[in-house]
Amino acid sequence: MIASLPTSRDVNAFATEAQERASDMVKENPALSMLVVFGVGIGVGALIGEAVSMTRTRPSATMAERIGRQICDTLNIKF
């Protein structure tokens, strides 16, 4: 049996239902919704900040190398 592809009507109905469920969830839990959005914003900001700072530092250094270097500098370990 060959599976049929969803029609645009099916996709629109799914999108509308998902939007309504999300809207209802936000109305029922406004404080939790704000905390989630705030957390996502902090995460995206941290990723963007990391990406921007990588262009200013040695581009060949990986994140693990930079973290290791920071730990070694903090502990005064010379390699």
Which stretches are low in confidence, meaning pLDDT under 50 for 5 or more residues running? none
- Overall pLDDT metric: 82
Q: Which class best fits the helix and strand makeup? A: mainly alpha
Radius of gyration: 23 Å
Number of helices: 3
The percent range for helix content is over 70%
Percent in strands: under 5%
Envelope shape? elongated
**Count of discrete domains:** 1
Compressed to H and E, one letter per element, the order equals: HHH
Distance between the termini: 64 Å
Largest sheet: none
The beta-strand count equals 0
Description:
- This protein has 79 residues and is an all-alpha fold.
- The chain has one domain.
- It contains three helices and no strands.
- The longest helix has 27 residues.
Quick summary of this structure?
The chain has helices at 8-28, 30-56, 63-74. It has 79 residues and is mostly helical.
Summary tags:
79 residues, mainly alpha, elongated
Annotate the secondary structure layout.
Layout: H1 8-28, H2 30-56, H3 63-74
